[in-house]
Amino acid sequence: MSATEIKSPRSAVAKVGSNRIAPQYRRNGSSKGNFEMLAWLFMRLSGVVLVVLIFGHLFVNLLVGDGIHAIDFGFVAGKWADPFWQIWDLAMLWLAMLHGTNGVRTIINDYAEKDATRLWLKIVLYAATTVIIILGTLVIFTFDPCPVVNGVQLPGGFCPVP
């Protein structure tokens, strides 16, 4: 290979013919369908939606009211008392996790050379993603700022006194 020649990447697509301008390619094995195209499209769309969600989140938390000095347990409790903010934060959690998981999946596919290594890395990735999405969703929807334990309300300066 000469100094100006670029080595072909690993691919399931083999070049047919010697047309340098527009080479033709032939697939070896079965096609994966449209999954990779849909994953690529998801990354673009979710990225745009995430930009809106994240900047909205930052604006409300850092610029409205007292800014960063107002963020405490009571601020989050008041925010999550409104279903709008629960859905907003849930969408941000789900999209961020799925967007990141898809990106890491692509990196694993690009750099893990052995099939077994690729398989186990993806299993760990998908398991971690599932656990974080489930736990995050449970926290958002089961959050109780004024819990009662054994008939006694736990102390908090923002909870009404019975």
Structure description:
The chain is mainly alpha-helical and 162 residues long. The protein has a domain at 35-145: Fumarate reductase/succinate dehydrogenase, transmembrane subunit (3 helical TM bundles of succinate and fumarate reductases), CATH 1.20.1300.10. Helix content is 58%, strand content 7%. The chain has four helices and four strands; from the N terminus they run E-E-H-H-H-H-E-E. It has helices spanning 35-63, 73-80, 83-111, 115-142, and strands at 13-16, 24-27, 148-149, 152-153. The strands form two sheets. Strands 1-2 form a two-stranded antiparallel sheet. Strand 1 (13-16) and strand 2 form a beta hairpin. Helix 3 (83-111) packs antiparallel against helix 4 (115-142). The longest helix has 29 residues, at 35-63. The radius of gyration is 24 Å and the shape is elongated. The protein starts with 12 loop residues before the first strand and ends in a 9-residue tail after the last strand. The relative contact order is 0.09. The model has no long low-confidence stretch (mean pLDDT 83). InterPro entries: SQR/QFR_C/D (IPR034804), SuccDH_FuR_B_TM-su (IPR000701). The chain crosses the membrane at residues 41-64, 84-102, 123-143. Pfam families: Sdh_cyt (PF01127). It is found in: Membrane. Keywords: Heme, Iron, Membrane, Metal-binding, Transmembrane, Transmembrane helix.
